[in-house]
Structure formats: C-alpha cells, structure tokens
Amino acid sequence: MDRTLIWVLPIFIFLIFPKSSSEDENVRKALVQFMEKLSAGHEQNDQNRGWDISSDPCNSTWKGVDCLGSQNVKRIVLNKFNLTGIFDAASVCTAKSLLVLSLKENNISGVIPDEIGNCKRLSHLYVGGNRFTGDIPDTISQLRNLKRLDISNNNFSGELPDMSRIPGLLTFFAENNHISGAIPDFDFSYLQEFSVANNNFSGPIPDVKKQVRGRQLHRETVKVVKKGKVENESKEPSSNSSESKTGGNRSQYSITSAEAGTTSSSLLVLPSPVVKDLKFEDLLRAPAELLGRGKDGSSYKAMLDSATILAVKRMKDLGISAEEFKSRLQRIGQVKHPRVLPPVAFYCSEQEKLLVHAYQQNGSLFKLLHGSQNGQVFDWGSRLNIAASIAETLAYMHEQLQEDGIAHGNLKSTNILFNNKMEPCISEYALGRNVAYSTFKLDVYGYGVVLLELLTGKSVQNKGFDLASWVNSVVREEWTAEVFDRALISEGACEERMVKLLQVAQKCINPSPNERPSTDQISAMINTIKEDEERSITAEP
Q: Which residue ranges run through the membrane (predicted)?
C-alpha cells in the first residue's frame, strides 16, 4: 500500500502540473506568423527552420532563436537567411522579453511598422542590408533601452525621428539610404559608432567632437558625408580662449545678504539654458518644498514658475571658506560633462552657502534602489550601464581636476540623480570638506559602495562601512552568490559578470587608499564587463 502511494503520487502530480512551456501559445503563434511573413509564405523554408507552434522556442530547434538560459525568447538572429517577405513588428513584439532582433543582409521589403515601438525591452535592432522603404517610424524613438541601431543600406526616405529621446545610444548606422531633412539632435555622450553617409540631408553637420566632451568615438572618423547639401555650423569659441578659461559670460547680481541685512553679497549666476536673469529675491519668494535634511545641509525644491523648477542646497559649517567655495564652483562651471549636474547659480558667505541646480524629477539612485521604482525596469543591464556611466564620468572629472585638487568628496547613491531621459548624473560635485590626494581615493571608495548597492540591493548605513563589511564577510565564507540582489538572480542575470563587478567593488573599498584603483582603471574594467555582456547578447545562436 505504502509502496503504491510512493509511485502513484509523483505521477499524479505530474499529470496535474505538466511541464510548462517557456512562451505561451499566443506568443508562439505570433512568432510563427512573424517568420511566415518574413519568408513570404514559403512553407518549406519555415519547416526547415524549425519554427513550429507545437514546439518550445526555448527547448527545441527554432533556428536563430535564443532564450539565453531563461524561459522567454531574448534573441532572434536571422542574418543571411534569404528572407524575402515583410517585417511584421506587431507579431514579433509579442515576445515581451526580446532584447536583440537582427535581420541583416536579407531581401526584406516594405516598411518598418509603427508597432516596433511595442518592443519595449529591445536593446539591439539590426535591419541593415535589406530593401526597406518608406519613413523610419517615430515610434523607434520610444525604445528607451535601445543601444545599437543599424538601418543602413536600405531605401528609407523621409526624415529621421528625434533620436535624442533614446538615452545611452551606442551605435547608429543609417548610411546609404535616401533620408532627407536635417540631422536631428543626438546624445553623443555615449555614442561609439555613428554614420549617416550617402543620404540626402541638408542643414548643419552636428559638432560631434564638441558634444563628446573629450572622449573619442571608437571609429576613426564620424561619417556624415551627404549626397545633398550640408553646411557647417559657425564655430564656437575654442576651449582655449580666455573667455572660456575665466568664465567671461558669467553675470553677477548685487543683493542684500539674508543673514546680515547690511552686508553685501552676491548670487553668481552661470550661463545655463535652465534660467536667465535669476536673482536672489526670486529664490526667496519662490514656493519651496523641503526635500530632505542631512549632516551637510538641507535641500529644497523651489518653483520659480510653472516651467522652471530648481533644487536649492543650503549648507552651513561646510568647512571651507567662501572664497574656496566660489573658486571650486567656478572651476566646475568650466569643466563640463553631460553626466555632472552643472550649477545654475550659487551664493556664498562665511555663514552659509547655497547651491542651485535644475531639479531632477526622476529622483536619485538611492530612491530607485530602495524606494518605489514606479514601473521603471531596473534589471542587470540597467545597473551595469549606470555603473559604467558613473565610472566614466568620475574618471573624466578626476583627470580634468587633478591639478586643482577638486574631487567630489561625498559620492553616494543619493547624489546620483536621473535626468528626464533616466540617465544618471552626479550632483553636488566639489562640496567635500577635504582637498587632497586622499579625497580622490575617497571618491573611489564611495563609488565602490555604490557598486555594492547596485549588486546587493541593500541600503547603506555608517557611510557604507556596514555594507562593505557584510559583503566581505560573506565572500570570505565562499558564499559569494548570497550577496546578490534576489531580483537579479530571478531575472537570470549572468552570475559570472556579477562576480566580476563585485571584484571591482572590492578593489574600490580596499581599506588602504593607495591600493585602490584609479577611476581610469575602474572605467576600463567595467567597460570590459559591459563588452562581455553585449557579446553574450549579440553572439550568433
């Protein structure tokens, strides 16, 4: 009797709970329809490729499909498959986890439908070397996770959509088409590869070198040669001009100090698209909302009008003189980087100091990690991109400000804010108390703690010492995998690359400052991890 139960029970459970398929039937149907339309109804080709509704795309022989160890289709690579049909974006985008779609070097015709905007997680889209026609859909600019886009060697016409809405775009190839109009704004701060040669563009060529801000693109040249007429923009004053070095465009306003009614002070307003003609009285009169208090001061949200919202940091006992405070922020105003939140204005006296910058409504990295994500996807790829962006930014700032002795001095997740494109920006740069070589190494330590937060999902206490101590103790016991955020484990993030990033973090939090790597070294290490991650996603199945 007992032996019968032992054998029957597992069989009964198996019958009630049959093995689940990776993608549901509706997704499989849609993917098969996608392939049928690409194949122009050539049924024999479809059968040879193994795309069949009765089989599992993650556990069978669907050629060109890879689930990357998960239960959902992540990558579809159909390069040189002799496809002669049309592109059914509505069908393929039912695979909600799709990261990579590559259809290069086929004979696909027709247009790219607007439904491509439904592939919300798509990071790589390659359709170069086909016979696509018509306009490039505006919905492509809704693909906020897109990193690589290749539409080259087709017959696209019309104008390019607003590509500046895609944050963190690394590659854009659109050469050899019939695209017209002006080249739209691009965010060149991440861009590594860019080519729009042999089209019908008109208007100015974007000043790529200026926008990259000291960082070279991976290609030797940026191809913007056109079949149409293109004019160069008038040149801006060079960075070597005396005006650039001395900040000649700054405007000072004489005001009455808020704390000593008869003492003359000044609000120094820096050139900024955020505000013009800002006066101290404007800040005093503006409705203000307390954002938070800390050991180094209080932060407020000030609304000048419906279109202008500023963040004001009020500091006392900062430990630096008014002259030193002014000198630092003037220097930060000269050394610009798109991922460092620039000061809009500042006020300083011996008693208190104010720092004004544009309010970032998407909050901080701390809030994203430990508060409400409001539906924002914060997966392994997003965290790795943030880590790489902050490392690159910090390396640039350290290089530019090494001789000035100006480090950040207080780098932490609450000081990493997200702009309207959800790109990370470092705020409150140069407000640390110390000015010494050790402060640059303190930045490295702070960055290491930020990496630990990204990897573990845990919050920081005691300036990160508690978190660092816990991570080190777990790693010593050879339970390394236990430190990682369960959300990352659940999504199937690559443990090998998470361990590599953890090793970078451990180097950064080395108790001996002299043993910590430089920010250049950190950036190189993390870019290597990113490249490994991209290769794993884009590699042929």
A: none
Separation between Cα atoms, residue 257 and residue 261, nearest integer Å: 6
Q: Give the whole-angstrom CA distance, residue 369 versus residue 386.
A: 12
pLDDT along the chain (541 residues), means of 10: 38 35 81 91 63 83 81 88 94 92 94 94 93 94 90 94 83 90 74 81 62 40 36 30 30 28 48 66 73 77 78 78 81 84 80 84 89 67 94 93 87 92 90 67 94 89 69 71 84 89 93 92 94 78 50
Rounded Cα–Cα distance for residues 272 and 250 (Å): 10
DSSP assignment letter at 232:
P
How far, in Å, are 92, 125, 139, 143 from residue 116 at the CA level? 9, 10, 7, 8
Give dist(CA 211, CA 217) in Å, integer: 11
CB neighbourhood size of 110 (10 A): 15
What's at 213, amino acid-wise? R
Q: How many beta carbons lie within 10 A of that of residue 197, not counting itself?
A: 18
Q: What are phi and psi of 92, to 5 degrees?
A: -65, -30
The reply to whether domains 19-231 and 365-538 share a CATH topology is no
Reading the block at residue 107, the tokens are: 């004979």
Q: 249: exposed, middle or buried (C-beta count within 10 Å: 0-12, 13-18, 19+)?
A: exposed
Which two three-digit tokens encode residue 95? Answer: 């695979």
Give the homologous superfamily in CATH for domain 365-538. Transferase(Phosphotransferase) domain 1 (1.10.510.10)
CATH superfamily of 19-231: Ribonuclease Inhibitor (3.80.10.10)
- Sign of the CA dihedral 80, 85, 86, 92? negative
Domain residues of the chain, as ranges?
19-231, 255-358, 365-538
Partners of 355 in beta bridges: 313, 346
pTM of the model: 0.56
Q: 105, 79 in Cβ contact below 8 A?
A: yes
Q: Is 75 helix (H, G, I), strand (E, B) or coil?
A: strand
- Is 3.30.200.20 the CATH number for 255-358? yes
For 309, how many CA atoms within 13 A lie in the half-sphere containing its CB? 11
